Amino acid sequence: MKKLTLSALAVLAVAGSAFAGCPVVTSKEFKQPCVTPCFRDTEFQLDLFYSYNDAAHQGNSTANGRFLSDPQLTPVAPGLLPGSTSVLNSGGITPGSTVVRSGDANVKVPQYFNDGSGGGVGLNYFFARYFGVGVEGNWWDGCRGGFNGEAVTRDVVVNDAGVVADPAALAAAARAAGYSVTTSADGTTVVLRKTRSFGDSHRTAANQVAGSLILRYPFEGTVCWAPYIFGGGGGIFDGKSTGFGHIGIGAEWRVTPYMGFFTDWRWEFTGGSTSDNGFADSTKITDVLGRRITIDNNGRNDVSVTRVGVRFVF
Question: How confident is residue 302, by pLDDT bands cut at 50, 70 and 90?
């Protein structure tokens, strides 16, 4: 019975060593220590991180819109030439005068992605000691929309038959409507000019999903760490979705085999060409002249992402 008990204890000891991942030592002269590696051949990781997202501002989109209307006779019907009917119908212009409206609009559209802080969560799986895959969600206050610019309206009033306007009445009506008045020396031409600034802007969160193939090289020792490189792609979804590819580099430090810290940096190449910023190839904006002008974007709006976070290993 005593021999049977000793045999059972020996079996349990060997089995315990096997489950612990330690080699079985039978020599009475040497006892090998059991050391759990910081980086295992297969492991699952959960990341929680802060991110700083730096948008590459390679020039705002700009546009210049110009037009020349067909000649119109005064008095002008309401709405025919938006914004100046109160002046042109003020009684300061001789009926029968010819009116031609011209205009310029200079518009700036900021690039869609902006710098901003955020954070997210990631999941990684290493199917071998040196190779793994990862997916993450990252959110940051980094999208902006809208536009801003300045529009200039000019109404040129001409009457070859004689004086086209009562200067005092026209000047009073023009000032009330925000116009300036210039009258030719002979009184046959009057130019009404108005400048108006306009714009609309807002910021929203950028919602990003990215997937990566990861290559790491662990170093075991007093300090356990692993540099790594990664690459992949993903998309940003916030009402104006775009895809991107990315490459990056980083490093991880393990405090225990089950928890550590990491930091990495990557560059995201947003989709599309340099003419459309990865979004619609043109943006239609109705300016204050009552016309539509086309904004053609220029310059890519790539994003670099720096992450710092904590990693839990299972």
Answer: confident
- Amino acid identity at 256: T
What pLDDT sits at residue 142?
Answer: 77
Ordered DSSP codes for 269-313: EESS-TTTTTS-S-EEEE-TTS-EEEEBP-S---EEEEEEEEEEE
Q: What's the token pair of residue 183? A: 């009258």
Q: How far apart are the first and last CA of the chain?
A: 42
- β 98-109/61-68 pair status: antiparallel
Q: Return the ∠ at Cα 285 (arms to 281 and 286), rounded to 5°.
A: 150
Gyration radius (Cα) of the chain, Å:
36
The answer to whether 104 and 150 are in contact (CB under 8 A) is no
**The tokens of 251 are what?**
């490093």
- Token pair in block for residue 294: 């086309």
Q: Which residues pair with 186 in a beta bridge?
A: none
For position 246, what pLDDT does the model report? Answer: 96
**Is the separation of the CB atoms in 87 and 173 below 8 Å?**
yes
- The pLDDT mean for the chain works out to 76
Assign residue 146 a region: left if phi > 0, alpha if psi is -120 to 50, beta otherwise?
Answer: left
Provide the percentage of residues in the chain whose pLDDT is more than 90. 32
Q: What does the pLDDT read at residue 208?
A: 92
Which tokens in the block code for residue 291? 């016309």
102, 154 in Cβ contact below 8 A? Answer: yes
Query: By the 8 A CB rule, do 143 and 113 touch?
Result: yes
Structure-token match 């030719």, residue found: 184
pLDDT per position as a tens digit, 120-157:
999 999 999 999 999 999 998 877 655 667 777 788 88
Residue 123 is encoded by which pair of tokens? 């999941």
Ordered alpha helix ranges (H), 186-311: none
Cis ω on the peptide bond leading into residue 257 (within 30° of 0)?
A: no
